[in-house]
Design goal:
This protein is of the alpha/beta class. It is built from 12 helices and 7 strands. It is elongated and about 70 Å long.
Length: 273
C-alpha cells in the first residue's frame, strides 16, 4: 500500500522524488523503490535523519509529513525503536493503520518539544495502486489547512476520497478497505462455478474477469442504482431470475451485511487493543 501511495503521489506531482523518503527493511523492495528516484532507507531512524537533513537544506523545518504505513500490531515497536521521533518537533502524521485511533497515536508517539503533533487518519483501499482507489480521510481538529490540503491531494491522486468523522473510519474500513476482497471472493466463486459447468480454468477466468469489468463500468455512473441495474438484467422466470433466487434463498445479502459488521467490529477491537 505504501508503494502504491508513493507511485500515485509521484505521478500526480504531489510528491517530489528527491524529497520523498521511504523506510523499507526488505532490501529487494528498497532497490525497487529506489528506481523511482526516491530515497529508500532500511529503517525509520535513518528515514527521520534524512528528512531532517532535507528540511535543514531547504529551510523548512517541521514541514515534512510522516506517513505511518505499517501494520497496527507493530506501531509500538516502531515508536520504541525510533528514538529520533522525539527530535522531530510538532508535525503532521498521516496514518493508514486500521483500528489505530488518533488518541492512541498521540499516546504511542514521543511528545514533541514546543507543541503537539497533528494526526490524520486515512484508510485507502487496494485499487489506489491503479488509480481507482477509494480513500476515507478523518481529520482531527488539530490539523491546519496545509495538512488537510496536502493529505487530500495525495490520496486523490490515487482515486476518490471522502471526508468522514473518525468514528466512521472502522465502518468505512469494513465496506471499502476490505471491499475489494469481497469482489475477488465473488470472482473466485464465479470461476469455480464456471469450471463446474464445463469451462476450462483459463476460459473461465477470462469470462469472469470481463464480466466483472463490464458490470463495474456500468456501475461507475454516480446516478446508477445497483438494484435497478440488477433488475434490468433479470427477466422474470429467466436464467438470471433463477440464479438470483438461489442467492436470495441462501441469504447471500444478509451474509454480506453480517460480514461487514464483523469487519467493522474487528476494527473496533483493534482500536481498543
Amino acid at each position: 500500500m505504501a508503494a502504491a501511495i508513493v507511485r500515485s503521489g509521484l505521478r500526480s506531482g504531489v510528491l517530489a522524488a528527491p524529497s520523498t523518503i521511504v523506510a523499507e527493511p526488505e532490501e529487494s523492495r528498497r532497490a525497487e523503490l529506489s528506481m523511482l528516484g526516491i530515497i529508500a532507507v532500511p529503517d525509520a531512524t535513518r528515514g527521520i535523519e534524512s528528512m531532517l537533513l532535507i528540511e535543514t537544506a531547504h529551510h523548512c523545518h517541521g514541514m515534512g509529513a510522516v506517513v505511518l504505513a505499517v501494520k497496527p500490531q507493530v506501531l509500538g515497536t516502531v515508536a520504541s525503536t525510533t528514538p529520533s521521533l522525539g527530535s522531530l518537533g510538532p508535525r503532521c502524521f498521516v496514518s493508514i493503520m486500521a483500528g489505530v485511533t488518533s488518541a492512541r497515536l498521540a499516546a504511542s508517539l514521543p511528545a514533541p518539544h514546543g507543541g503537539s503533533h497533528r494526526f490524520v487518519r486515512v484508510m485507502p483501499n487496494l485499487p489506489i495502486s491503479v488509480g481507482k482507489g477509494m480513500t476515507a480521510i478523518a481529520q482531527s481538529a488539530s490539523i491546519d489547512a496545509h495538512d488537510r490540503d496536502w493529505t487530500e491531494s495525495l490520496f486523490a491522486s490515487g482515486g476518490d476520497t471522502v471526508v468522514l468523522p473518525e468514528e466512521l473510519i472502522d465502518a468505512f474500513t469494513a465496506v471499502a478497505g476490505s471491499g475489494p476482497a469481497y469482489v475477488f471472493y465473488i470472482a473466485e466463486a464465479m470461476e469455480r462455478a464456471a469450471q463446474s459447468v464445463g469451462f476450462d480454468a483459463k476460459t473461465a477466468r477470462a469470462i469472469v474477469r470481463q464480466t466483472i469489468n463490464g458490470a463495474a463500468s456500468l456501475l461507475s455512473d454516480a446516478n446508477t442504482d445497483p438494484s435497478a441495474l440488477r433488475q434490468a438484467v433479470t427477466s422474470k422466470g429467466g436464467t438470471t431470475h433463477a440464479a438470483c433466487s438461489v442467492l436470495d434463498s441462501s441469504g447471500v445479502m444478509e451474509a454480506f451485511a453480517r460480514a461487514i459488521v464483523a469487519a467493522r467490529d474487528r476494527g473496533r477491537e483493534l482500536s481498543s487493543g
